[in-house]
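FAQ
Q: What does a multi-component entry look like?
A: The components come first, one per line:
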Amino acid sequence: MDNETYLFLAFGISWLVFAVYLWSINSQAQSLTEEVKAIKVEEHPEDR
Amino acid sequence: MSPGGRFGGSLTGIGLAIGTGVTMIVALYMMFLYAPQDSMQGPVQRVFYLHLPMAWIAYLAFFIVFVASIAYLVKRNRRWDQIARSSAEVGLVFTTLVIITGSLWGRPIWGTFWEWDARLTTTLILWFIYLGYFMIRAYISDQERAMRYAAVVGIIGFIDVPIIHMSVRWWRTLHPEPIVTQSGGPAMPDSMIYTLSVSMLAFTLFFFYLVYQKMLIEQAKDELADYSLAMADAEADARTNQAIQQHADEKSTKGVTA
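Then the predicted structure of the entire assembly, as tokens:
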């Protein structure tokens, strides 16, 4: 592999890791929001 | 009574996201189009604009873990633990990338991906320390005890950070000596210094954005856990009261029959 390939590999892997991490944070937040919503509906069924 | 979920839409979150996006675009432009190519190392030298800010973030993250862990042990306030674990997780991601980008730079420059050199080895030790930090949290079921032990690891683990920083001065290593913080000023052209500064700013904002989002998640997780515990307690109390009432009813029925 030439010098330039390592540069693009470094940038590619870094951004891929960040994208996966951001996606994982987003899905954690989403599932927690749903859990909170479900609890609120359970406590106040009239708000459904 | 129910826990709250406050993700995404806060002003701090939006501000950090916009700030990160704008500075990151400028940083990428400068890394590839503004900064000159290094005549010795060629294009792969540009990894430096990614690797160095990530290393700075790894230090910063574990410094925050260190301070928040001390504060947790002194005050026993769960908020400090939330800060410590959020910063540790983001720090672990950045440390992983520091090792990966360093190895990818090392292959064409040193001729090897890895060398058991002082800087690389102490960085790998830091990575393992913080992996241990999360293993403690995962394997100790008593939450209070897990927070206490993790705080101790967070404090002791930070000792490795100054060792990593000084390793290139204390030992003979393959890793280059500091070129930005050396005495007599940075040994590179202004355009490279500007690019590095913008990249540092972009990654610092990105780090705070990630820690902020992670903290909201950790806060909500704790609130949900407290809520589940309170519900379980209330259910147990209700069952006990029901059993007492039933027992009293049975007793009074027997008394009437007798």
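Q: Is there any commentary attached?
A: Sometimes. For this entry: Residues 17 and 47 of chain A are 40 Å apart (CA to CA).
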